[in-house]
Amino acid sequence: MPADLTGTFLALDDGRPAVVVGRVYARPVEWVWSMLTAPGWFPARAEFELRPGGTVRFSGDPNQPGSSGLVLAVDEPRHLAFEWGGDEIRLDVTPEADDRTRLTLTNVLADAEAAARNAAGWEVCLTALDAMADGRTPTEPGALWQEAYDGYVQAGFPSGAPVPGLD
Questions:
Q1: Biggest alpha carbon distance in the chain?
Q2: Which of 31, 39, 84, 129 is the most buried (most CB within 10 A)?
């Protein structure tokens, strides 16, 4: 497994399967929040109505049609949760020492077989966010996704869910 994969597959207290990935940024909480709620780090353009019951719209992904989800919770600038494709996505932003910020992304899975696929996708997304934090332009995700997916499968994450654009 490549050393830079940050994901963990686990069962939540209520038994639901989840993938958790994270990063620490040398940026303040407000910067991380503003990047999470702006288009640019998802493979699709994500537009949020930042209120419980609001809509999140996804468009522009070449491997899937546009879609939408439901905003479940917002506690700006610390927490955002939304439903997307049957999964629940939780973004938690926590301040750390020295003006650093921890981002924890929890993907509560509707289907455990999606664990390797989704963990690889979140690695791509967070790598794009890493580039943005460093003032770089995110790179093409294809090869990175495949390497991450292969690494997660090798690490024993459940796999077998269809992969948009490949299946």
A1: 45
A2: 129
